[in-house]
Amino acid sequence: MSEEMRFLKTDEYQDLMRFLERAYGHGRGFFVRSSPRLRVEAEDSSLILKSEDKIVGHVGIYPLELVVGPSTITTGGIGAVGVDPRTRGKGYMSSLMEHSIQIMEDRKLPLSVLWGNRQRYMHYGYEVCGQKYQLDFERRSMARAGIKPAEVEEVDPCSEAVIEKIRKLHPTLNYRVA
Q: Which of these, 12, 55, 74, 175, has the minimum number of CB atoms within 10 Å of its CB?
């Protein structure tokens, strides 16, 4: 069985989209709509594993600038990690993750960030860091404190006006992806 690990070539983009849809159980076009960044950065950021000339695994290594108070840190964001459901259990994810960590070390990225299953990624050295808060508020205790509920308005996330408002608010956050 021939296996090859390398970065995605431009003409393989559609194959990557179909693979990710299978790996995550999503319908056709899901990633094009929800993750347009994959299209722009796929060629130099999408590490794939091919077996018998088919994509069987993927790890995206996306450059991120994290703003942490007054500091900006260049990091490697890990995303769209997936293995073809028919080939799970063969160590493909481990190979891809270990190789992506080596790539980030070679690129001198001091930090890597990912969101996902903590137990799965802890094996590769990922751990929750920083402060994490979970605040629970109950209507009764808020009323007792004299705090009235905030008016909440549902908005269309595709609305240009809503997107523009978010674009203006985002840079005001002290902790964010730049």
A: 175
Cα–Cα distance between 152 and 174 in angstroms, integer?
A: 24
Q: Which two tokens stand for residue 109?
A: 């990225």
Mapping DSSP to helix (H, G, I), strand (E, B) and coil, where does residue 119 land?
helix
State pTM to two decimals: 0.77
DSSP H or E segment with residue 14: helix 13-24
At which residue do the structure tokens 């992506």 appear? Answer: 100
pLDDT of 141-168, one tens digit each? 889 999 988 888 899 988 999 999 999 9
- Of 119, 106, 117, the residue nearest 82 (C-alpha): 117
Question: What is the phi-psi region of residue 158: left when phi exceeds 0, alpha when psi lies from -120 to 50, beta otherwise?
Answer: alpha
Q: Which letter does DSSP use for residue 130 in this model? A: S
Tokens of 29: 């076009």
Cα 143 to Cα 146: distance, rounded to the nearest angstrom: 5
